[in-house]
Amino acid sequence: MTVLRQEYRDGMARLGAAVNIIKTDGPAGRSGMTASAVVSVTDDPPTLAVCINRSSRNNEIIKINGVLAINTLSPHARFCCLRPCSLASLRRKRRTGQSRTVDSN
After folding, report:
1. CA-based nearest residue to 87, from 22, 21, 33
2. Hey, what CATH class is 18-95 in?
3. What is the pLDDT of residues 51-61, one digit of tens each?
4. What are phi and psi of 19, to 5 degrees?
5. pLDDT value at 100 more than 50
């Protein structure tokens, strides 16, 4: 059976997962992102694996800093991940000249 790329994406969009805030601070600066691909590897020593796209600027910043913090959000804390992503998107759009003001009313 062959699954089309869009069918796969549509199915994965319905898959529930925890939302995690990944933060880092150090020599390369402060940075953060949201991630759903965070898993426990072992409890001795306590180890987690976080999947970060190699082309993400966060990947390099985390490598240079050598530290990160992971915060798992409750369903009621959804607003915590929307604001940082919205601000990052706005900054990116401003850098590329694609920003615009939107009335929130």
Report:
1. 33
2. mainly beta
3. 999 999 999 99
4. -105, 130
5. no
